Structures are given as C-alpha cells and as structure tokens.
C-alpha cells in the first residue's frame, strides 16, 4: 500500500531542495571570492530558482507516486533536482581577463547568506511542528 503524500512531505522536499540550491550557490560565491586575484578566472554561477519553482508547481498538482515494482518509493518532480553550475562567460571586467567583481560577490554572499538563514529557520520550525504533532498523538 502506498501512503498518501502529505503536505509536510511536500514542504520538507521543497525546503531541502532550496537549501541545496542556496548551499551550492554559497560554495560558488566563496570560490569566486577566493579566486578574485586569479588571472583570467571567470566566476562560477549557480541557478536553480526557475527549476525549483516548476518542480514545486508539479509537486502541488500530484500526490506521491510509487508502486510495488519500485518498492513503494516515491517519484517526485524534485527527485532529480540539481542546481545548475556554470561558468559566467560574460566579458572580462578587468584588465587581467577576470570577470570577478569583489563588490558584487560580497553583496551576493550577504544576500545568499540571508536566504540560507531564513530557510534554516523555516526547516527548524517545520521540524518542531512535526515533532509537536507526533507528541500530541502519542501523549
């Protein structure tokens, strides 16, 4: 028997995917900052928001999909979600051939850090609500 795909499951999947995306972006930004003085270095960029939004919309229209053939595991639009990592091929902004701007990277680092913090707080709240619901049923 396949259990229904609960809203908490969906929320947790979306939050986890977003956290993975922003974590990958954070790593790329830190790498860009570390290579700010590397001749000819082109910044790394991570994109995932459009794919995450589409997967979220697909997830909202479906319940879990599973079958005895696959052991009852779920197949969701987020199952194969991966942030896209690429090299920014824009024209160099500096004479040394690099397109890394330390000001831009520091601003992106701060913005991305705030998003990671907010997502972490949401996940903690979600976890507390689930634990509270479980305790309420058992106790």
Shape: elongated
Order of helices and strands: HEHEH
> Helicity, in percent?
55-70%
Low-confidence stretches: 1-5, 64-70
β-strand number: 2
Total count of helical runs of at least 4 residues: 3
Mean pLDDT: 83
What's the quick description here?
The protein has 139 residues and is mainly α.
Tags for this entry?
single chain, 139 residues, mainly alpha, two-stranded antiparallel ribbon, 3 helices, 2 strands, 55% helix, elongated, disordered N terminus
Lay out the secondary structure.
Blueprint (H helix, E strand, L loop, with lengths): L6 H28 L9 E4 L1 H12 L23 E4 L14 H37 L1
Antiparallel strand pairs: 1-2
Explain how this protein is built.
It is a single chain. The chain has 139 residues and is mainly α. It has one domain. The chain contains three helices and two strands; from the N terminus they run αβαβα. A two-stranded antiparallel sheet has the order 1-2. Helix 1 runs antiparallel to helix 2. It starts with 6 loop residues before the first helix and ends with a helix. The relative contact order is 0.19.
